[in-house]
Every structure is written in C-alpha cells, then in structure tokens.
C-alpha cells in the first residue's frame, strides 16, 4: 500500500532523502515496515507472550494508584470537594485520547506507541518530538511515583515495627532530605523483575494489581462509615479555576492507560487485544478513582487535606480510631505504587527500544538478550537513571512536568488518527473511533486546555526539555536515522 499524498515508498526500502532539510524532516515510515520490523532488535527478538488479561493488567498496573495514593492529597486543596469533578474531567480528557490510542494500537501494533503512530503519519521530526515527550512521560513518572512510595513505606514500617526511616534518607533535597533511598530501591526492584522477562513481569504485576484493587475497595468500605454530607456543602469553594488546576494535576494519575500500546510487539494477538485492553483499563480505573475520591472527601473536610501523599492511610486511622487499618492501607499502597513503577518502567524501555531500532537513539537500547527476550542494557540504563532522579527531585515538580509531556503526546495521537484515516482509509482497523474526526478533535482541544492550566514554571521546564531534545535529534538522530540511508540496516530474523 502507498501513503496517498506522499512519495512512493516500498515497505522494505525507505525513500531516499528529499532534496532539502524540510523533506527529510517530514519523511514518514510506512505502516507496513513498522509492523514488519515488530519484535526485531539488535541480536534477538522480543517474545510474544501476553494475552488480553495481561495487557489489561499492564495498563491498570501503570495507572491505578498514582493519583489516589499519591496525588489526591495535593489536588484536594486546589478543588475542594469538587476534586471528584476534577477526576471526571481528567478522565474524559484521557477517554478521548484513549479512543484514538485504541484505533492506532489495533492498526499499528508495535512497541513505539504514539511515537510510532506519529512516525507513520506526520513524519520523523514530529515523531521525535512525540518520542521525547514519552521519555518525559514514562521515565520521569517512574521517578515521581517512586518518590511517593517512600512515604507509604514509612507508614507501613511505623505501623508494624514502630520505626521509620529518617527524613534525610526518605525524602529528596528540597523536601527536607538528602537522598530518597526508598525511591531508588523500588525502581531497582522493578528492574530485577523486568530483566526476568515480559511474561514473568506480567505475572508479578497481575498479583500486585489484585492487591491494590482490594486495598482501595477496603478503604471505601471503611471510609464510608465516617462519611459526612456536610463536607460537600460548599462543593466548589475555589471555583472552576481550582477544578481546572486540580484536573491538570490529576491527569498525572491517568498516565499509564496507554502502557498496553507499548507491548504491541509482545502481545499474542496485538490487533485484537490492544484496543480492548486500553478501553477496559480506563473504565475500571476511572470508576475506582471517582469512588475513592468521593469517599475520601466525605470522610475528611477538604480543608484538612495538607498535600500529604499518605492521605488515605490517615483517613482510615481517623475513621476507625485504629492504626491497624491505616497500616493495612499503607501496605496496599506500597504494593500498588510498586506495580506502577514496574509497568511504567516497562513502557519506557519499549519506547526507547523502538526509537533505537529506528536509529534515533543509540543502538544499545535495542539490544535484546537471546535467553530472556528482553532489552537488558536498555532496562538497566533506564532504571538507574530513573532511580537517581527519584532520589533527588521533589514529587510535585515531577508530576506537573510529566503531565505536560503526556498531554502533548496525547494531543499528537488525536491528530495522528485523523491523518491516518485520510491517508490510509483502506487499512483494516480492529477498532474505529466513533464520530471521527469530532472526538479526536475534542481530545486535542481538551489536552491543549489542560496544558494551559499548568503553571509557568512547568512550561519553562517543558520548553527546556524540548530544546534539549531538538539539539540531540539534530546532532545525532537526524543523520543516523535508518530512513536517512538508501538501504535499511539488517535486523535480526524474527522467531517463527
């Protein structure tokens, strides 16, 4: 098949560079070639071992827990009781983008997620920008979530053995600490699981997802006993501006629903299962978020939320008067956040795997270990980077920086699904966004609106991040891209 409106391309051979820089920046990678190269890396291939259940658990594992266990305490002071509305707004923003992700994941079932979708529809430069945003989304969110893990670990230690780690070793610089040791530990533990293989990691994640869903339902059962309707009398004390600001922050808690799309080259039936996994996980996560947030605000006046990441454990103690239940929830949170770290770290390694295979980042990220079928060097490098980042950067700054990168990438996905519909209408699609292009357009608008709700400092950080990314692309990826050469570099033969 040919991309309409593009120069003729063969799936097996990239088109020669255009006459100028502009043409080279817009070079697109044919969908057929993206799919054909699926699973192939330097020295080995990824193994297809994941079914619908595992893919759904990957998305739930990457999403559920971050907003409720970590960011809820920071969002309530912004929105008051209307934090439930903020969750709904963030969820709708995620839903529009999830529909676009579902269509593209079923059409282009590869590991690159929105990076690969952009490469096939909008060209290499846009794909690079999208991929660079994904590095921010996945890599930095791993660090952000890991930071919150330390606080719940202290809650658990205090409730079980009566000791806690000193602030110097459990908080990053700027938050009263010197080095956040627990954050580094949880990232390294996730690394160990990932090095064992995708199937083994999926099994561990499934167990952890079951535990955290049980913990959240337990919170609702106990927390509702302390519910006071008076806590909802002034529903929107800080106006719609507060709800919007809280929604932008809470969007961080939806990061991860797209994690299943990064497993496109390790899914048994990617075209059928990826769209289902994305939509199913988002519905489950949104329902739990709204339920838990409603119970939390009903059980504690919104003025008493002080930004603590361990807000739910505190509510359990206040409701029952027994520290035991707070300890139980803290244990659930420790497991829940570890699951998020595991699955989001998995997504980050697969994004870099795809970018490396295309020549835009060093080849070390696409080397596959022949025994485990995993990109080992990639996993170790990313884990060490994220672990050190988690130990040295405060949570709030990380969460907002991650949100803006994610929103930007999601906005591009909504554009990509419309472009692919127009340029390749004949392609088979296992899922189609209803009312296209209306819903993708709404998804794009919501993403831009929520980006505008973030503060100036976050935009400055994002601008610096993009500038660094463009410098790297033009100094490295622009010339080393596999589409920059007339003949593709040989890759490993995929397993039969």
From TrEMBL:
GO MF annotations in UniProt: amino acid transmembrane transporter activity
One Pfam family per UniProt: AA_permease_2
Intracellular or extracellular location(s): Membrane
GO terms for cellular component: membrane
Biased composition (Pro residues): 8-19
Entry keyword annotation includes Nucleotide-binding: no
Region described as Disordered: spans on this chain: 1-26
Keyword Transmembrane: yes
Membrane topology value: Multi-pass membrane protein
Membrane-spanning residues: 50-72, 84-104, 125-149, 177-195, 207-227, 239-257, 278-303, 323-347, 377-395, 401-420, 432-451, 457-476
Superkingdom of the organism of origin: Bacteria
UniProt xrefs under InterPro entries: AA/rel_permease1 (IPR002293), AA_transporter (IPR004758)
Alphabetized UniProt keyword annotations: Membrane, Transmembrane, Transmembrane helix
UniProt name for this protein: Amino acid permease
